Amino acid sequence: MNLSSRQLRAFVALAQEKHFTKAASRCHQTQPAFSALIRSLEDAAGVRLFDRTTRRVELTPEGRLFNESAQRLLNDLDAVLGDIQDHVAKRKGSVAVAALPSLAAGWLPGIYAQFHERYPGVELHLHDALLMPCLDMVRLGAADIAVAAKSGDMNGLHAEPLCEDYFYLVCRDDHPLAQHETVRLAELKGNAIIHLGKGSSIRQSLASHPVLSGLNGFLEVDHLATVTGLVTAGLGISLLPSMTLFQFKHERIRVIPLAPRSRIKRSLYLIRRSDKSLSSAGRAFYELLLSQRGVLAQRNDLNPDTGTIKAADTFPASS
Amino acid sequence: MNLSSRQLRAFVALAQEKHFTKAASRCHQTQPAFSALIRSLEDAAGVRLFDRTTRRVELTPEGRLFNESAQRLLNDLDAVLGDIQDHVAKRKGSVAVAALPSLAAGWLPGIYAQFHERYPGVELHLHDALLMPCLDMVRLGAADIAVAAKSGDMNGLHAEPLCEDYFYLVCRDDHPLAQHETVRLAELKGNAIIHLGKGSSIRQSLASHPVLSGLNGFLEVDHLATVTGLVTAGLGISLLPSMTLFQFKHERIRVIPLAPRSRIKRSLYLIRRSDKSLSSAGRAFYELLLSQRGVLAQRNDLNPDTGTIKAADTFPASS
DNA sequence: CACACTTACGATATTCGTAAGGATT
DNA sequence: AATCCTTACGAATATCGTAAGTGTG
């Protein structure tokens, strides 16, 4: 047995109007078609739902019974469908993003603001986590999207290249290298390097460079803010990707590009599950991030003409 | 926008099976037809509800959203339709009958028992009321059916003849007429007649007979049981229709048919509103009553061969 | 290569709108 | 005579099942 929402709507219209012609036009149908629709409903129900003489249309007892529920059924259906439409139109929904701490603090907030202005009804959940937790959250469904680097095991994940994040030397203004326009890795020998923890994707990007493994690395911290403090205090230098440099806006800190031959970079990706599609809101966020790809590429490219780069130049907090 | 229950059922089946071919066969369809059905649902919703590779079928985020409600919507629909089917099949429902007190007490209870045995799920409401209230209850919708006589104003009512109810003389065994086989109205002259109230249909049937208006009628009571008492006490005689005679099973009371030329009767009808149809249960009750028409006609016909009728012979209480 | 969903396509069933019919006031 | 629901009927639409196509493990 089948029953369509149009039949329900026709029933409700007729129960209210008590007039085939009026109810038919309310349903944008001709009266005979409408009449047939009501009859098909009655056939499906197995009872006459309306008593009709040419002068009066009235509900039968069974019709009254049906009438008590029909409106509610229709409202329920409309509510469910409306809810889905809201999600499709991104008036509702939620997106959970997992991002590396460096991105979660500096670059993403601006994107979030943009997204929230465009889709104020969509809830945003931002998790800042190290690389592996980021990927695991996506795998487990705790996050829809990750903005992170790749790890060895990318099983079940789809990684869309987002940008290349080039590393810079960060040192205090009284450091011997502070006045250089560019710096070669070899010149760093003998300096105390301040490292992030081994779970950090920044650290992992550096680890792959054999040249650096020989450097003194007795300082290892978890947060970029600490690196800022340590560098300002003159305790060492650090190598950090451009997207973290917003943290180093300090008058005594200098940010210096690496020489072309010495360039280090980390690749950042938009990561999602390969077997599950994103929600409408998730897809919108994903595409908003992707649309930033060009902007990011331009910002992060090393420009040989730039000379010494001040932190403020790279990523103004007011995006 | 339209949406059919079959689409809902297909969605639920696929969400559970996660397999087009299996879900299709569960819906008694071929797989391509089922596939098209799902697609039509997705088109209606405006979103893809399932992620399908050739190897896996999974709900999309919007599909999961829909899934939370689809089963409920379907259950609601089935409940409503099932309820109507129950009413059509007379497993549920209610019938309100208004009947003249004489019928409500004597004849109807047996009919009620029959109906209740046949349709135990249907509630029965019996109102005993005088003629006019009976008709008004039907007019107002407080009763579906009335078993009563006609009144002057039968507007908006349909009256189906049910039976003719012939009057009998009721007197005590020591009354001069007690030994007669039949009685002529003229023979009643000079006797004290015990009347029912003016609202009674019995009284109204008698009132139309000019012969009786000359009789002494100083005793007027409301209930038949009182008539029984008065007659037994030797305070008078009464004229009552056969369907009330079950009340006069007393060793000292005699029930005597009226002579053919003196016959008085009241006509009883099944009465319903002419502009509203009966519910399934109501119709069933109506037809059960109609089916009694033959039986009643036989019972109530005056049989000239019967001679003096004892009350016990006419309507045994144990029906 | 076997399984599983989609596409293609002709046949069937439904639904629609126009026009005529019938009933009621 | 006017109103209003039903019936009749040809046209448009939708749905179905069979068969071929495509993609994945």
Proportion of helical residues of chain A = 40-55%
Quote the beta fraction of chain A.
15-25%
Largest sheet of chain A: 7 strands, mixed
- The CATH architecture designation of the largest domain in chain A is 3-Layer(aba) Sandwich
Structural features:
homodimer, 13 helices, DNA-binding, D-Maltodextrin-Binding Protein, domain 2, alpha/beta, disordered C terminus, seven-stranded mixed beta sheet, Arc Repressor Mutant, subunit A, 319 residues
Task: Furnish the topology, listing elements before pairings.
2 copies of one chain form a homodimer.
Chain A: H1 5-17, H2 20-26, H3 31-45, E1 50-52, E2 57-59, H4 61-88, E3 94-99, H5 101-106, H6 108-118, E4 123-128, H7 131-140, E5 145-148, E6 157-172, E7 192-196, H8 201-207, H9 210-213, E8 216-221, H10 224-232, E9 238-241, E10 253-257, E11 265-273, H11 280-291, H12 293-300, H13 311-314
Parallel strand pairs in A: 3-4, 3-5, 7-8
Antiparallel strand pairs in A: 1-2, 5-11, 6-9, 6-10, 6-11
Helix pairs in contact in A: 1-2, 1-3, 1-4, 2-3
The first copy, chain A, binds a DNA duplex (25 and 25 nucleotides) through α3.
